[in-house]
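Working notes for the structural subgroup meeting. M.R. asked for a predicted model of this chain before we commit to crystallization trials. I am recording the input and output together here so anyone reviewing the notebook later can reproduce the run.

Input as submitted:
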Amino acid sequence: MKKLFVLEILLVILMVISGCSVGPDYKRPDAPVPSSFKELKGWRQALPRDQEIRTKWWEAFGDSILNSLKNR
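Returned structure, recorded in token form:
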């Protein structure tokens, strides 16, 4: 019984140690990277309007139940 327990512990230790070996040294493959990116035709920079007063967005759905829930 005691020999079996020691054998199991040794087996677990060997499995943990063998899991640490990754194999040959990893070398990152060369990938072509452009010096600059091209935007699609018609692309423009975003113009955030966070300062504007928001409207009642829920009315855009035309749902009377949603409107009544929001007005509660």
